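worker-3 :: picked Dihydroorotase
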Amino acid sequence: MTLQITLPHWYDLHTHFRQDETVRATVADHVKMGCIGALAMPNTKPPVGKVFEKDDVKDYKSVEAYRQEIMTASGGVFQEVIVPLYITRDIKPEMITAGAKKGVLKACKYYPPHGTTGADFGAPFDMFMENGVFAAMEESGVTLCIHGEEHGLSAEKYFDRGENAEELFYANKMPLLIRRFPKLRVVAEHLTTKVAVDFVKSAPEHVKATVTPQHLMYTIGTLLQGLKYHLYCLPLLKFDEDRLALRQAVTDPENTKFFAGTDSAPHVKKVTPCGCAAGCYTGGIAPQLYAQAFEMAGVDLSIAQGQEVFRKFLCEIGQTYYDLPKAQGTFTIEKTAENIKPLAMAGETIIPLPLGMDTPMTWSIV
Ligand SMILES: NC(=O)N[C@@H](CC(=O)O)C(=O)O
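worker-3 :: tokens ->
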């Protein structure tokens, strides 16, 4: 008999829905994969750089309008959407306090300046340590979602082994942050290195982390062999010992910190004449990929104990941390290969991550 697992509906707690007509298509893919909500990243065009529509901050999108746009696109399926405020140079501590007080602002997102797709509005981390922004977040219980990479490094330092951009950030910046703001809620996003995993493990309980399917499944070697550019995302895939640390963290039966955040990032123009944009699209297929990754990590998903570890990672830890409405319904995945199709969008196509990979998908949505 084909193995099936029934899971509560879940929240993807790190994803990119983009803007305009892309929102409807990407949200639909999330609905297809059992999501009842998400934490939708603010690196849109223009960025989500203000809290309320009435705030007069450049031509930025507002948290309240973008949240409503996504809720509407889900056709009533989404129970809740968290839109973090993009931390730009234009953010003032008062905006955070006011947004939190009204219940509109739950999180803010730090991007290293020019560190990834849509990160051009980011500003140096130290600035927010000093200008009252992180202090206002700590005081009002707003979560800081961090893209934890040092910025401004040369290419060879950025991807250096042992001292790469993420390792430097978790060795230097993060300890300072949690010492200075001991009550600040922090989510370390899309971890890729053992250094970062060890940091999160050793930090207080309110410091958590998201992990993507691709960082659990692949290493830099997979990307380089055949230059599989659909696997190019930031932070870059790392080495075997890093992947092992991630796998151990998410599959540990005692895990209370590491949860699902796909970083699904659609790019209609992934390839440029001399390179490619960072971001992997996993909309519609993420639970299947996570299940495959857990099996690759040695978890037996045919037994209750294995399923429990998986359920906690996908459906429970993050939902509890963000105090999101509990799921009433369920969805089912089964162990049969899924036939993936490119997503058509505004006359262009978005290629989901596993298309063209050597490893075919082993799970599908029932
Ligand atoms: N992960 C990525 O490589 N890209 C993301 C941005 C990000 O979170 O880095 C994107 O929006 O395309």
